[in-house]
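Section 3.1: Structural characterization of target chains.
Under the original work plan, the team committed to producing a structural model for every single-chain target entering the pipeline before any wet-lab resources were allocated. The record below documents one such target. The sequence was received from the expression subgroup and is listed exactly as submitted; it comprises 214 residues.
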Amino acid sequence: MLELDQLTKIYGGRRVLSQLSHVFQPGEFVAIMGESGVGKSTLLNLIAGLDAPDSGRVLVDGVPMSALDDDAATRLRRTRMGFIFQAFHVLPHLTLRQNVALPLLLNGDAGTRADAMLAAVGLQGRGGDFPRQLSGGELQRVAIARALVHRPALLLADEPTGNLDPDTADGILQLLRAETRQHGAGAIMVTHSHAAAAMADKVLLLTNSGLKLA
């Protein structure tokens, strides 16, 4: 279970999130929508422990992220979370197969699922290619394969279909839905797309006053 307890985040004197509280249930696929600049990406970074709140807590299975040292927080992210970044963060010096297999290798796995995940996102046979050979939409699909390959308990997705055409986006959303359901994982997806949000169990709207059902 994931709980947000009175989260507040301030950037440059501007209060981006203010005393935000919410409980996400295990296995729940939630879409978060809202205007640009309201703090959607900031919220994902706080949940993942990539940024720290100015006040309040993020609790994962009842344990505050702030109670974990850097090594413990890194292990938690590496083993239990998958993150799809807007900027992809695909490593240019690694092949696509190596990029996707990275979470498995860091967790002591042989990385045998990498090619299967590349195929699942429509990049079958491209494992030996390098990121420079790919379009923006293809890079996004590599990032999605990498986020799913180790079967995370919680998937955090920041605009996962933002660079994809409608047909490819629909296929990717179906994959996210199937992977999370199959493994009982939770997913929190930030999106501007109403079509993407329609795939979720629940759609929440983030406003200056907090999270509410859309």
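The CA atoms of residues 10 and 192 lie 23 Å apart.
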